[in-house]
Design goal:
The complex is a heterodimer of chains A (134) and B (168). By secondary structure, chain A is an alpha+beta fold. Chain A has 2 helices and 7 strands, in the order αβββββαββ. Chain B has 168 residues and is mostly helical. Chain B has one domain: Arp2/3 complex 21 kDa subunit ARPC3. Classes of the chains: A alpha+beta (134), B mainly alpha (168). At the A-B interface, helix 1, strand 6 and strand 7 of A face helix 4, helix 5 and helix 6 of B. The complex binds zinc ion. The site of zinc ion (ZN) has 8 residues of chain A, from helix 2. The site of zinc ion has 8 residues of chain A, from helix 2.
Amino acid sequence: MKTEKNREKITFFIMTGILLMTALISLAFILMKGSESGRTTVIISEGKVIGRYDLDLMEGEKRITVQPEGSRGFNEILISKEGVCITDSDCKGKDCIKTGTISHFGETIACLPNRLIITITSDDEYSGYDARTY
Amino acid sequence: MDKKTVKTAYIGLLSALSLGIYALESLIPPVLPIPGIKPGLSNIITLYALRKPGKKEAALILTVRILLSGLLFGNVLSVLYSFAGGYAALFTELICDFLLKRKHLYLTGAFGGLFHNLFQLIAAFFLMGSAYVFSYMPYLAISGIITGLFTGLAAHYLLKVRIPSHPL
Ligand SMILES: [Zn+2]
């Protein structure tokens, strides 16, 4: 009976430990990203990087329309010092527009139907990154 | 009434509840500008069903919820994401509940939330063809654990409620 109880306790502590470790490691990643400077927004359409802009160097506003060849989906993106947002899209649900403006590291706008991702990273991160990973 | 009819009706009721919770949740605007961060409240029903009718019924309820919510509010893509996340959570919770000998349901919920988000990201990786999606794994890991703890606790207290003439 006693070993049974002990085994239960061990399982409990191992599982709690796994969760705590996962949470701490994740938190460390988030905090490390936050301390860097040079916010770069990367626009990825259908798995390819189609644009990269340094937000802190932006002057005024820049509008980009993304419409991949042979695709009916389009998204309109607005970039400025304040951040990036999608202003128009033909997707259903319009979750990408509802996301609003992103301006911090790690923040991401995704338009799943149109296979578009916009994310904010640091300059050096992913610089040698090959867009097609599969 | 025979037992089978009662059981069918009960599964239907839980499926409807799960769908209703899912629909209400989708009305809540996103708190953080990161896609995929959601309270995941319909997991309360999954956890509850895992204990009350059983694992087969829980899988059935989950499948009904995903297909109906896809039909009503989503598309093929959102169904794929829901399947990846929903089944990952269900299997994780099944294993955790067994390992923990049906105790500490909040831990089971937390693991379910974590693996739900992990597998949705993996699905996103394949669908978007971009490893960038993994850059928000840290956010999704933490949110999955927190919301999972909450839904696990909610299911724990829900299971404690004595329902008069409960069919099962
Ligand atoms: Zn969209």
